[in-house]
Amino acid sequence: MWRILYVPLFFTLFSCFLPAQAQEPFMRHLTDEIGLPSMEVYSLMPDKDGYIWIGHSRGLSRYDGRIFKSFTNQLQRGSSLSDMKQATDGKIWLRNFIGQLFYFEQDSLHLFEPWDEYYIKGFPAFEIANEKLWIAERAGKLFIYDLQNNQWEAVLDSNDFQSDYYSVRAFGDKVLTFNDQLMIIDSSFMVSSVVEGENILDKEWYKGFSFNKINNDTTLVFSNSTKKVYFLDEELKINSHPANEVIDLSDHHIIGVNYLAEKLWIYTYDGLWVLEEGVDGWTVMYHLLEGRSVSQVSHDFEGNIWISTLQDGIYMIPKMEIKFMKTNQSSAGSKISKLLPISDEELWIGHASGEISVYDLKTSRLKSPLYSSNIRKEVEAMIYDSVNQRIYLCINGLHVLDRKGKLLYKDSYNRSFKTFVIQNDRLYFTSSYSFGYYELSDIDRSIRTGAELEEKVVEIKLQRCKALYYDEERDGLWVGFTDGLLFYGADEEFHLRDAQDKKVYVNDITIIEGEVYAASSQYGLIKIVDKSFEAVLSDQETFENKILFHLCQSDQKLWMNTGKGVLAKDLNSGKISLLTKEDGLISEDIYDIAVFDRSIWIATSKGLTYFPETINTFNQTPPKIIIESVEINNDVLPFQSNFLLKNDQNNLRINFRSINFKSKGNHQFQYRLLGLDTTYYKTSGDTDYARFLGLPPGKYTFEVFSVNEDNVMSENSEQLSFEIKKAWYQQSFVHLGAMLIFLSLIYGGFQLRLKSIKRQDQLKESLKTYQLMAIRSQMNPHFIFNVLNSIQEFILLNEKRQASHYLGRFSELIRRILQMSREEKVSLEEEILALKNYLELEALRFGDSFTFDINIDDSIDCESVLIPSMIIQPFVENAIKHGLLHKENDRKLVINFLSQAEKEYLICKIDDNGIGREASYAINQHRNKSHQSFAVNANKSRLDLINNNQKKPIGVHFEDKYDNNKESLGTTVRLNIPIEQ
């Protein structure tokens, strides 16, 4: 009996007394998976440029929000580095666990060698104050090094204080150091003791005493002997901190304390306690990272809180206002599927496990689970019936609960409801395959009798639905079907369509002050006016794919799930803002949005997130921009504000960095190079350099801005000026001399050109002269007399047809010759026709003793090939006159036109079986010189003139043919004529 009572009693006690601290701020986890070199982190420090410096087990790293850059020194005897401090000159000082001191300058880690000769043992503490380096050494001495003069200024021995030095910290213009007692050292090295305040309760406070954080007004210190936190006031009195009254750290080892964002942070080997001072005093807000050793807490210029751990890397809190709630739903993971505020004090939470939790605002406690369906299927829809004090929900079917979570009715018919609306005593629903309703009276009857509701369901339309909302002004329902948005009213029914008469698809609907807003799949957020709509978000305000899923109203803000975060639109000012994981959302995989207790609650796949509805999601902190280095002709040089370069040092790559941690690399750069162009060029955050090649001599100023994820630009540009000097040959006197030489060359060239033009004119006149001479050769008196004599003979023999035929051929030849004489170039076809005409008339003279044949290769296009006019006929005439004329019979002449393989030359072979050139020469020797071939001489001169004016000359080759007895068989003439088309 006792066991039966014990189990529910224990469950009730456990559920009712879940801790109020179940909610905590979201923390982004930085691990080795994103580039952190070591998960064992000892210290963090933001520098004046905005970088986060990280001391860890593998050395030193610098983080700009996107890239971890690591630094080492080859003289390091221990890889672990910690305890970083920045001096006024920008140097960053740090130490390792071997006792070596280092400083970072000009992108390199340097060993502070003057300390090596004094170091004896232990883990020295150091401080940078008053332009001096203070080093407390475990052997009992305090060393002071002047950083301006680079020399040791003083050494204080612990015998003066009967104590070794374990810590040293600056306090205004003084320095504090202590172990068994706390001492003050002024600028003249005078020593005095710190006075205990009246509220010091435990006189053993000084044992295990350590410093952590120093402000201008107070210095926070702690003691691991008393497990308490103390502070130094302006009068240098040590006092117990009021936080000791509300937190018991007796079982914990304190690693450090800090005061950030108006909160006290105490970090131990068992996590981080965060305390806040209110009207009623200090209270413990959170115990974060339980079971982890927190080594340091710091914050950056954007207000992010950074937490380093000794085993688990780094955590970063983007916004303290954004919290997530632990719902203890281990059975089905952390996924929250549905949210339902049913009053000002209760928020019902539907889980993916089919369970219901309730958050009670009065007690700030979570009742979990209030109801479990034992069906491992998520809660898909919930609505509150305020009249009947019931909750209708869908977990693979309809479930009806009372306010205490008692099951009143459960539908055995499996049905997947997406949304509910209660109106006119009906429970309207959308489901995976229909839109319909139940009568509330039927639900009442089923609750009383246990009768099934399935036969009472009314299905209005059998189609899958996503959204449902009641429009009181129109007295109808807006239903988001998979084939578009439908208004379903008593007197009208219509589909919403766009300007192209296409249906509009929506995922959610809400009404604000009578205006209907919908989350569209095509146009983002739309406002429905009459039977049309208008887009509410501009192109500049829209998001990557324009798809919206859930809508929720708070005052005059409309909150939307974009799939990439939560978008807020102020319907009065029109201002828009976006909240993402970078701002503190635990996940961007969002399933529902609700307004509860003046906060926005987000149901995600990783749990429940909430934040004040007044939250400022706009990152108005300007990012920082740094020029890291300059590469000149691939040589990397440290950044400096001015460079003077030689003329050949004109290939530059300028490397820069944007420092911003909220954007997580989602930033841009804008840069320009004055002296080259005034236009700003934009690049993504991944392209963190600008390259300029082959710059001309001149003065240049490069300036670059960084723009964060909310388009806030860095306050100032980072600038780099440089000058590229002119080469000796680019000087003015060199240019003047070159100009004079150039003008002289132009004048000389002009004179040469005039001479060339005159010479060309003379060549053209000579060419025309020899062309006319070639015509005369074809029209010489002997040829004309012989042709006319042959025609006369046909007439005397009364062979009129023959006479008429040859007379026509003769006149055609004369016409062709006169026509071709006007052209420098003619087609091969015209040249062959003229040759045929001429040879037919020559054959008339010789009768049957003379035959000729003209052969043309098939690959030659006679119409398109151009050659000099009448260039072949003189060689044909020469073959007849000197080779065939002196032969008594069987005179043969063959002309072959061939194409070279490369088709660059036309080859013309003129082959005769005459007496040969040797015999012809002997005959001509007995003749008068005036009888020599006029046509050949004229053509030779003409060939010389043509070849003088073109790149490819016309080649002529003579070949004498002989038989085995050395008797002449005739002559072959080969002409190589360049082809022109």
Portion in strands: 35-45%
Oligomer: single chain
Low-confidence stretches: 1-21, 161-165
Overall shape: elongated
Can you walk me through this structure?
The chain is an alpha+beta fold and 981 residues long. The protein is 17% helix and 42% strand. It contains 9 helices and 75 strands. The chain has a 5-stranded antiparallel sheet, with no helix packed on it. A 5-stranded mixed sheet has the order 19-23-22-21-20, with no helix packed on it. Helix 4 packs across helix 6. The relative contact order is 0.05. The N terminus is likely disordered.
Could you list some keywords that capture this structure?
5-stranded mixed β-sheet; 9 helices; disordered N terminus; single chain; elongated; alpha+beta; 981 residues
Task: List the topology elements.
Blueprint (H helix, E strand, L loop, with lengths): L1 H15 L6 E3 L2 E3 L10 E6 L5 E5 L2 E5 L4 E4 L9 E6 L5 E5 L4 E5 L2 E4 L13 E5 L2 E6 L3 E6 L4 E7 L9 E5 L2 E5 L3 E4 L5 E3 L1 E2 L12 E6 L4 E5 L4 E5 L4 E4 L13 E7 L2 E6 L2 E8 L2 E8 L5 E6 L5 E5 L4 E4 L5 E3 L5 E4 L1 E6 L4 E6 L3 E6 L4 E8 L8 E5 L4 E5 L3 E5 L4 E4 L6 E7 L2 E6 L3 E5 H10 L8 E4 L3 E7 L4 E6 L2 E6 L3 E3 L10 E7 L2 E6 L4 E5 L2 E4 L15 E4 L2 E5 L4 E5 L5 E4 L10 E7 L2 E6 L2 E6 L11 E9 L2 E4 L3 E4 L6 E8 L8 E7 L6 E4 L4 E4 L5 E10 L10 E7 L7 H47 L2 H16 L3 H21 L4 E3 H19 L3 E7 L9 E3 L4 H12 L6 E9 L5 E8 ...
Parallel strand pairs: 19-23, 62-68, 70-72
Antiparallel strand pairs: 1-31, 2-30, 3-4, 4-5, 5-6, 7-8, 8-9, 9-10, 11-12, 12-13, 13-14, 15-16, 16-17, 17-18, 20-21, 21-22, 22-23, 24-25, 25-26, 26-27, 28-29, 29-30, 31-59, 33-34, 34-35, 35-36, 37-38, 38-39, 39-40, 41-42, 42-43, 43-44, 45-46, 46-47, 47-48, 49-50, 50-51, 51-52, 53-54, 54-55, ...
